[in-house]
Design goal:
Two copies of one chain form a homodimer.
Chain A lengths: L9 E7 L5 H14 L4 E7 L8 H17 L3 E11 L2 H12 L6 E5 L7 H6 L3 E3 L9 H17 L8
Parallel strand pairs in A: 1-2, 1-4, 3-4, 3-5
Helix pairs in contact in A: 1-5, 3-5
């Protein structure tokens, strides 16, 4: 395969909490290896020490930690149950359009176990919903990575997305 | 946890082709272990020798192999991109309604790399779409297993679905 890695562009995935299951870590390694043949792809999972067991309080504690990643250079997209639904071709086109705008990075965010704090939902306009169904914030990492890889293969005419 | 396994009911997942990636197999073991605490859950992945490389022909060859699983006792549900979309609570209620009808088994089918033959789509009325996005027929196994487990925990008031 031709090395079509565009050095200027980086995809980032930012989530909350260590990856718990080995199969998720192994699956992420599998897809990140594939994605890295096209673009840089980095994962950051934040360790947030919770002082409370209250869902809203946990969301707020996580929001404080997420803010510096939201403020970093690049475009922010939330993976959120309130987000826009799209099929793979639409997602691929959507990504391509944003990539064409010369962002230093495209950063995808996955909320914690209770989802995003309202302040983050309000401040980030771009939101994507991967499914109408709810999945654990752990397995969403894997679902997203497969879909990002698939969308990239669509852009580049790579046969993966046809089978 | 109380053993609430209902001996009469079994969930089955039927797909095409060996599970290729270790992380998918490991993830399926993880979720099937969880599901089995509530209900029997079996997976069957059919080995279909393809005589053709043509997508429509492959669908037909797979349809012939799938037919005996479709004809086995129980209710058939296709996991299909043309299916009905639902959220987790709706999926849980949908399952519960079908389970209340005393089916011997509820059988979920995942098509091969090219999806289902039109004959199967026509003959099976119940179809569910897990996402508007397309995923590989391998990782769909994992996405489905997590969602089946999640739907079962909703039915039983198990805390998994709350975090």
């Amino acid at each position: 395969m031709k090395d079509i890695k565009a050095k200027f562009l980086e995809f980032k995935l930012i989530g909350i909490g260590r990856t718990k299951n080995a199969f998720i870590k192994d699956g992420m390694d599998f897809y990140s290896g594939r994605i890295n043949k096209f673009y840089r792809f980095n994962e950051d999972y934040l360790q947030v020490k919770h002082k409370s067991e209250d869902a809203k309080q946990i969301q707020k504690e996580e929001a404080i930690q997420l803010q510096k990643y939201l403020d970093a250079p690049g475009l922010n997209i939330l993976l959120d149950e309130k987000g826009k639904t799209m099929d793979t071709i639409q997602f691929s086109n959507y990504l391509q359009n944003h990539m064409n705008q010369s962002h230093k990075a495209i950063k995808f965010f996955i909320g914690g176990a209770y989802g995003f704090d309202a302040s983050i939902r309000q401040s980030v306009p771009l939101k994507i919903r991967l499914s109408d169904m709810t999945f654990s914030h752990q397995i969403i990492r894997l679902i997203f990575a497969e879909q990002l890889y698939r969308a990239i293969t669509v852009m580049h005419g790579h046969p993966y997305h046809n089978v």
